[in-house]
Amino acid sequence: MTSFPILLFAALASLLALPVTAAEDFPSRSIRFIVPGAAGGIVDIHARKVADMVSRSLGKPVVVENKPGGGGNLGAEIAAKAKPDGYTVFLGSTSIFCVSPFVYTNLTYDAMRDFVPLTMGTIGSPLLLVNPGLPVATLDEFIAYAKKNPGKMSYGSPGVGSAQHLAMELLKQLTNIELTHVPYKNAPQVLTDLMSGELQAAIEYAAATAQHLKAGKMRALVNAGPNHKPEFPGIPTSTEAGLPAFSIFAWHGYFVPTGTPPEVSAKLQQALAAAIKDPGYSAWARSQGSEMGGQSSMEFAEFIKADRQLWKDIVRKADIRLE
To answer: For the chain, where do the domains classified as CATH 3.40.190.150 start and end?
Structure first.
């Protein structure tokens, strides 16, 4: 499989063969952001905020197109087949680049071959959540309770192979606890059933849970990452909770189809990075529990390469395969 760095170097090497006016003329019409999820989702909201700033920066409309379906794979397939001219930007994610390739057996695209990264949007680690009626207040107590009640505790996720499912699988692999997985079709119903007591636990991101945590309708035991969340400084990190290996991230970022002229990609990357680093957008994103991206294409490519190995190992050990 061809790696991102090789594709990037090949693209840069071809620069001399391209018209020097390509970047100067770009964009001459509207650009579309393909979001492989429904309107109103957290990535969609991020995309629309960034699209507005990029539109003002480049002087042309940036239109968000939602292409939900197949766990994000439908939108990825559409973007992968788009003309590589800079007028299609794909909102890729952990799921598309680090999970689906190892979970699904019949994908019609190859994320690592068909896309070139521009920059990361945001990144965040999830929270381990429990119903407030569960008699545990720390990660150690949760693990001990699960070992005393093997298989009797249930947790929910938005579906088999979702980031939330695999994050809990990582916790199970690290601690040798037994939990019963209940897959749902959407994340909001998971949280509803967690609050009602139908489920004892779940793993979810701060943006979706903040209001419920503040209302005391669920309890967060640990942040599955190395950094505190500013809006919830009292939630311990995985290292503070004594399980530093329980560190996992979900992220989204911006990509173009492979073959997009490198100077056009560079112009898009600069506009996107500036938007992501905008103080107003950064403050809002951090209030949602996210950390900011905006790095170079090469840095983003190297990050994805390393992150893929983590998720691949989780999927392999959990033996998860979908058609």
So the answer is: 4-124+249-318
pLDDT tens readout for residues 213-263 = 999 999 999 999 999 998 899 999 999 999 999 999 999 999 999 999 999
CA torsion angle 1 76 62 270 (round to 10) = -20
Question: Which residue blocks in 149-278 are alpha helix, DSSP H?
Answer: 163-175, 187-196, 206-214, 262-276
Lowest-confidence segment of 114-123, 229-238, 270-279 by average pLDDT: 229-238
CATH number of the domain at 127-223, out of 3.30.1360.140, 3.40.190.10, 3.40.50.2300, 3.40.640.10?
Answer: 3.40.190.10
Residues forming CATH 3.40.190.10 domain(s) in the chain: 127-223
Residue 306's H or E segment, with its range, is helix 297-318
CATH architecture of 4-124+249-318: 3-Layer(aba) Sandwich (3.40)
Find residue 250's DSSP bridge partners.
Answer: 124
DSSP secondary structure code for residue 229 in this structure: B
For the chain, the distance separating the N- and C-terminal CA atoms, rounded to the nearest angstrom, is: 21
pTM of the model: 0.87
For residue 291, report the phi and psi dihedrals to the nearest 5 degrees: -110, 155
Sequence-distant (≥ 6) Cβ neighbours of residue 101 within 8 angstroms:
107, 110, 111, 112, 308
What is the spatial distance between Cα 254 and Cα 41, in angstroms, rounded to a whole number?
16
pLDDT tens, position by position, 22-55: 577 999 999 999 999 989 988 999 999 999 999 9
Distance CA 80, CA 17 (A): 24
The Cα–Cα gap between 71 and 80 comes to 16
